[in-house]
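Now read these lines:
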Amino acid sequence: MSTEKNEKNRWRDVSAADVWTQGGKTEEPAAAAAPAAAAAPEPARRALGTNSLLRALEEKDFGFTDEGRSVIPAEKKESRYVLHALFSKNNTHLTLAAEYLDPNNWSLKSLQHTKFTLSAGACGFKKSQRGEFEAGYQLTRTIFTKMEQEGFLSNKDGNRPLPLEIVLRNFGPGREAFLSVLNSKEGYKVRQAITRVTDGTRLRQGGVRPKNRRRI
């Protein structure tokens, strides 16, 4: 019994730098022959992982709060505005965001910082009324007026406003109302700033079997 215990202690005292275990055999490492070369400090390597993009952004002075929301420094300039329009069956959501680019590293994905967001409920529509055409119409008029009042469509210095991109998603009743206001007189200043219109509707590819249709 004591012989087995002493044998275990003997192997426990041997450090990993003295022997190299491979396939149950102990061999001397190649680095042991040249201790001076092994003692040389290795250059710092950048850690890779799912948060590598966040680390890269922090190195470029893009900070992040504990809640995960982006904090854009004041010295970073806005490159353009993006108006996200989500038209669901029961509601309409419009969100205006500012896009920031890092001129020192164009490989990084641009950040978007939300300026404000509105839905049909903010215009006084309740319950099923939020999914109607009139709710989307009034909401679009409200957000266009707000964009003009806060200077997102025209600058006080007389300079040309930043370009605007519109991203449309889904095909709810509010989509037709949004396009009606955009093509009317009330959407004239918005049309002057638009440089790109994108349809961001998600297309289903594969997936699980859908639920059976309701039969009445």
Helices lie at 2-13, 35-38, 52-59, 133-149, 173-182, 188-193. Residues 140 and 178 are 6 Å apart (CA to CA).
